[in-house]
Design a protein that fits this description.
Elements lengths: L3 H10 L13 H36 L5 H64 L4 H7 L3 H74 L3 H30 L23 E3 L2 E2 H4 L8 E2 L2 E3 L8 E3 L4 E8 L7 E6 L4 E11 L6 E2 L4 E5 L10 E7 L4 E5 L2 E5 L2 E2 L6
Antiparallel strand pairs: 1-4, 2-3, 4-11, 5-10, 6-7, 6-9, 7-8, 8-10, 8-11, 11-14, 12-13
């Protein structure tokens, strides 16, 4: 019968216990996916450059004198911008899908490697269990000379060191596998959000096309008809704005200062990236003067990604009212009662993401930026009211939110 120490050494020398490195099982598949992801990434960068050009063209169109031709041009540019957004989002969706596939392939590779490694380590442990650990006296007696004795001990130490290293490496790869699984979950959540964004953009594109077609139908493509329509609309809008200013001027006297919260940071910004285009206050000071009103009862925030920029709730609360007054005042709007003495209003939305009565958390998406109502381009009109003064009154054009307003910057 072969002595225990020599049995270990013989198997060790034969290479049975040398363990293969991890990786390499699906390397070709993973590399192919990596290249596809890089290709998508380059396509996204190209489309984003085109998107910047489209945004510049849209800003130029919004600044032009109002005419039927320019209005149609603006619609076309808005549709073009949305279609580019859709193309970018589709590529982002595909890039995310490929990333998930790559992670899954890496996970399969890791799992296969770990199974193989555990099987090999199990074989080593079984062999050690069967042979037992040689002691110094046994190895000394079995060695032919001093040199072979040291070689035997060196072999045993090397085997132990190799086994410990491989056990450590196996645990490290198991931890990496768990991290990859968590990353895959996050990628799946991102993919779902991108698909929702894509659906929204497609809806907005159809809305813009419908508005364009309605404008062409209503004007019969005649400039004179269009101009008469514009003048009538502007006259109605100005009358509505004057009424809002008159009603809210009275309601401001009803504000109870003791019922209001104190301090900045009580409300969060309703957009991810802040760019104020008009401040709260007298229009002679805010820089936006028209015949409709002399006081701006909120702040205007510009879009960062164009039509459809997500609008976020400024704080916890409940949706106490929503409305749509068409092309006249706030367009599509949402009002949230924060139950701390404040009500916030979000106007000119393109789409609602919540409905009346919904309980809302701070930072939750409640709608998407648009240009509905009395608006010259996509933006958010954000107003803060004292809760005890806020009400919704019915008018011929739809429900109108009014109240005693406060400078939002006191709370943001």
């Amino acid at each position: 019968m072969m002595p225990k120490a020599y049995k270990l050494m013989a198997l060790f020398a034969a290479g049975f216990l040398f363990l293969a490195p991890f990786g390499g099982i699906r390397a070709g598949v993973i590399e192919d996916l990596r290249q596809q992801i890089e290709t998508r990434n380059q396509e996204i960068k190209t489309l984003q450059q085109k998107m910047e050009e489209a945004k510049n063209n849209l800003q130029e169109a919004q600044g032009k004198e109002r005419s039927l031709q320019n209005q149609i041009y603006k619609f076309n540019k808005q549709i073009e911008a949305l279609e580019l957004e859709i193309a970018i989002t589709e590529n982002q969706v595909e890039e995310t899908r490929l990333t998930i596939q790559k992670i899954e392939a890496q996970m399969v590779e890791l799992e296969q490697s770990i199974r193989l490694e555990k099987a090999r380590i199990g074989s080593v442990l079984q062999l050690i269990y069967e042979t037992g650990e040689p002691n110094l006296i046994e190895v000394t007696l079995q060695a032919e000379n001093l040199s072979s004795m040291f070689q035997n001990f060196y072999g045993v130490q090397k085997l132990e060191s190799e086994l410990q290293a491989r056990l450590s490496e196996t645990k490290k790869f198991e931890r990496q596998l768990e991290q990859d699984k968590e990353e895959a979950k996050k990628e799946e959540e991102e993919l779902l959000a991108l698909r929702n964004k894509l659906t929204l953009q497609q809806d907005l594109t159809e809305d813009q096309k419908s508005e364009k077609n309605e404008l062409l139908r209503a004007t019969r493509q005649q400039e004179a008809t269009y101009q008469r329509s514009v003048k009538q609309l502007e006259s109605q809008r100005n009358d509505i704005q004057k009424e809002i200013v008159r009603l809210e001027a009275k309601l401001r006297y009803a504000i109870d200062p003791d019922a209001l919260p104190k301090g900045k940071g009580i409300l969060a910004w309703p957009v991810d990236e802040v760019r104020i285009t008009q401040y709260y206050g007298s229009t002679s000071e805010t820089g936006f003067i028209n015949d409709g009103y002399q006081f701006h009862n909120g702040i205007d925030l510009a879009p960062t990604t164009g039509l459809g920029t997500p609008i976020l709730a400024a704080g916890d609360g409940a949706v106490i009212a929503t409305g749509n007054d068409g092309r006249y005042a706030y367009g599509k709007w949402i009002a949230i009662n924060h139950k701390n003495g404040l009500v916030t209003l979000y106007g000119h939305l393109s789409k609602f993401a919540v409905s009346g009565g919904a309980q809302i958390k701070k930072g939750q998406i409640i709608g998407y930026m648009g240009s509905t109502g009395y608006s010259t381009g996509p933006h958010l009109h954000f107003t803060v009211y004292a809760e005890n003064t806020f009400e919704v009154i019915e008018r011929w054009y739809g429900p109108l939110p009014i109240g005693g307003h406060i400078d939002p910057l006191e709370y943001l």
